[in-house]
Design brief:
The protein is mainly alpha-helical and 85 residues long. The chain has 4 helices and 2 strands.
């Protein structure tokens, strides 16, 4: 994600890259995770973190194999970014 930020000059969410590149979404939003924290639902938070790691790994593998990842920008255009991972 740092590499993408450096290439683009701005941050892109993991969810945006995962949806466009892998056609899958991350799990619940930050608001839901904060609610879980306040409720002491640590297992759900741990599962979410593990899923984030899995998605990040899959994105890295995709980028390494295909030399690119994609995301939908703020105006709704799909953009492809060349990567050398």
């Amino acid at each position: 994600m740092v590499d993408l930020e450096q290439k683009l000059g701005h941050r892109v969410s993991l969810d945006a890259v995962a949806k466009s590149t892998l056609t899958r979404r991350r799990l619940p939003t930050v608001y839901r995770r904060l609610k879980w924290w306040k409720e002491g639902r640590l297992l759900e938070i741990a599962e979410y973190c593990c899923f984030d790691v899995k998605i990040t790994k899959e994105l890295h593998e995709y980028g390494k194999q295909h030399g690119e990842v994609s995301f939908v920008d703020r105006v709704g255009q799909k953009r492809t970014v060349r990567v050398k991972w």
